[in-house]
Amino acid sequence: MTARRIEKPFTVVCIGGSAGGLDAYVRLLSCLPPDMGVAIIIVNHLRTVVTRLHEILPRYTTMPVELITEGLILRPDHVFIIPEKRDLHVLDGQFRLKPISKPRGWPDVITVFLRSLAAHWSGKLIAVIVSGYDGDGAAALCEIREVGGTTIAQRLDTAKQADMPQSAIESGCIDFVLAPEDIAKQIREIAAGTPVGEATEAEVGACAAGAASLTCGTRPDAAKGSPSRSHPFALRSGGNSTRSTSLGRHDDDALPLCKKSELDRGNPMGRR
């Protein structure tokens, strides 16, 4: 497919995370409408395992969720997931995948992609850093701001692992420090160009139910292709919420089904 320049670039939101990021992704997506005209790109840095986010996250949004492949075109009202062990770039409105430039140590795939966005995307940019170990993404936040983008860090007391948002805050280039539900509201306001007002009580409850329904014992393919009942902008009825998980290891989107014992003691499986 021939590369092309997007004549009227839409807003791109990069959400970077790692350990504990799944909780933040779910809470964010559960609070976002599917028709904002915004592309959501989740850059979850993985060292050793295959990502399953493209199987898990369709439960919590009615937007299409796609695993990124070489040359895939960025589209609004889609959620895109970085594949494991690849650096991600954007050029002429398409994703470009390259071998990971830092195969050892903590990955810097979020930093790499944010720098690519700052250099090659002329639409609005929003960089969001959520739960995770180390400080991936922090080094590129000033570049996002220099091109007029907005930078947001997850509020530390809401993050399962605070290292990554803490590093983002310490960069001195963060515009907002917010809980995931409030990050979603900020994204909605930037996309709309005007304040969207306070979320209704039903929407707030539905967002919380979205995170609470992240359930151990439910395989990702069990609800594949089925929109979440807790999505506040899809079906307004509340979902069947169950106990929430505590996902805190580095490659947490690829965790096997967790056991009740891990939930009861609030201890992440295989923490490294």
Name a few traits of the molecule.
272 residues; alpha/beta; disordered N terminus; single chain; Rossmann fold; globular
Task: Describe this structure as you would to a colleague.
The longest helix has 13 residues, at 180-192. The chain has helices spanning 21-29, 53-56, 109-120, 141-146, 163-170, 180-192, 201-212, 260-264; strands at 11-17, 38-44, 65-67, 78-81, 86-91, 94-99, 125-129, 150-154, 176-178. It is globular. It is an alpha/beta fold. β8, α5 (163-170) and β9 form a beta-alpha-beta unit. The strands form two sheets. The chain has a seven-stranded parallel sheet with strand order 3-4-2-1-7-8-9, sandwiched between helices. A two-stranded antiparallel sheet has the order 5-6. Mean pLDDT is 77; it is low at 1-7 and 215-272. It has a single domain (11-264), classed as Methylesterase CheB, C-terminal domain (Rossmann fold, 3-Layer(aba) Sandwich).
